[in-house]
Amino acid sequence: MEIVVAAIACYFASQYSLAFWLVILGIFYGLFGVAKSMINPAWYSQRRTMAGLDASNRMIALIVTKTITTVTLGAFAVRLADLAGYLS
């Protein structure tokens, strides 16, 4: 989450190239978390417990949430790539 906040700050500072790469990093970091959760469900349950959430394994909710997040960040990345001149 902090990576995306830094990308938004770079966006408002007109640092589009850096913001683009931060968003890409955020996307990969989120997808890595999903992959790690699918490979090791006990790790995911432990992280949910540490966050004070229900300890039951809610993998479907994780996948739906990360899909929505990835699509949103992907659209933002395309916009940033255009502003940074990567698409021209």
Description:
There is one protein chain. The protein is mainly α. It has one domain. 81% of the residues lie in helices and 0% in strands. It has 4 helices and no strands. It has helices at residues 2-12, 16-39, 41-50, 59-84. The mean pLDDT is 91. Keywords: Membrane, Transmembrane, Transmembrane helix. The chain crosses the membrane at residues 18-39, 60-81.
Salient structural properties:
88 residues; mainly alpha; elongated; membrane
Kindly report the oligomeric state of this protein. single chain
What summary fits the major beta sheet?
none
Order of helices and strands: HHHH
Residue-averaged pLDDT: 91
Number of strands: 0
Radius of gyration: 15 Å
Number of helices: 4
SSE blueprint and pairings:
Elements: H1 2-12, H2 16-39, H3 41-50, H4 59-84
Helix pairs in contact: 1-2, 2-3, 2-4
